[in-house]
């Protein structure tokens, strides 16, 4: 009985190494990644309607979700609005809004690396915590193990971007709002040293 999982593992390993470099062709992607994407109800969208970095403010979307934009000259922007429950106190909902932008790179092995420009920030609202509402810097590099753009057969056939996190698990699918990236200016927009 023990030998079968072992053989399955061998096959998994050899098929992974046989894949080699990912070819970004029509079979991989129905459209380029360039453009404006949003999850779920599509209310969370990058650009000036979401964040004002110079003022460190946000315009809260109607519902939670995540928005991404990718430009053809290598910039990305992320808008994220989330609720999570406090693990030790499940009734205490923690709301987080995040804005970040920077440079993305499509690696030959199929992964995407998003390197922030340093001016990202988030607002955390945690009614049960000692400090219940605060703004802080947000400057995390993100890696998606792979990605794929398919036709959204259940939603009218438009392009659907599927990102897979570091462990291969898919994150919420993103739908194309526009082939133009809806982005704030592609430069550092906030003096981080000025943040307390
Ligand atoms: C933000 O993160 C990037 C990538 O790790 C780093 O190069 C940069 O120095 C960081 N910027 C700030 C202000 O921390
Ligand atoms: C989570 O709940 C505990 C217990 O009420 C509280 O001490 C802590 O500050 C809360 N954390 C957040 C982030 O709300
Ligand atoms: C692709 O290469 C990057 C950088 O070496 C690595 O972090 C990532 O895990 C690799 N992705 C895959 C799917 O092997
Ligand atoms: C950062 O601060 C300097 C000095 O106060 C100012 O000249 C510059 O315009 C600021 N940059 C941004 C992006 O706000």
Automatic annotation (TrEMBL):
It comes from Mycena venus. This is Protein ROT1. It comes from the Eukaryota. PANTHER family: PROTEIN ROT1 (PTHR28090:SF1). InterPro entries: Rot1. Keywords: Endoplasmic reticulum, Membrane, Proteasome, Signal, Transmembrane, Transmembrane helix. Belongs to the ROT1 family. Residues 1-18 form the signal peptide. One of its GO terms (cellular component) is endoplasmic reticulum membrane. Its main location: endoplasmic reticulum. GO terms for biological process: 'de novo' protein folding.
């Amino acid at each position: 009985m023990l030998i079968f999982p072992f053989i399955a593992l061998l096959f998994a390993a050899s098929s992974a190494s046989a894949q080699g470099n990912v070819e970004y062709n029509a079979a991989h992607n129905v459209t380029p990644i360039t453009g404006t994407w949003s999850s779920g109800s599509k209310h969370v969208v990058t650009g000036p309607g979401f964040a004002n970095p110079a003022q460190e403010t946000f315009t809260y979307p109607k519902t939670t979700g995540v928005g991404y934009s990718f430009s053809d000259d290598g910039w990305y922007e992320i808008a994220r609005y989330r609720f999570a429950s406090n693990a030790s106190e499940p009734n205490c909902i923690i709301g987080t809004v995040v804005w970040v932008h920077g440079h993305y790179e499509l690696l030959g092995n199929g992964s995407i690396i998003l390197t922030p420009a340093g001016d990202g920030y988030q607002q955390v609202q945690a009614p049960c915590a000692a400090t219940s509402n605060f703004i802080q810097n947000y400057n995390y590099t993100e890696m998606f193990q792979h990605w794929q753009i398919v036709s959204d057969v259940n939603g009218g056939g438009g392009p659907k971007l599927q990102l897979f996190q570091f462990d291969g698990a898919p994150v919420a699918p993103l739908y194309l709002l526009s082939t133009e990236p809806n982005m704030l200016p592609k430069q550092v927009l906030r003096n981080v040293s000025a943040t307390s």
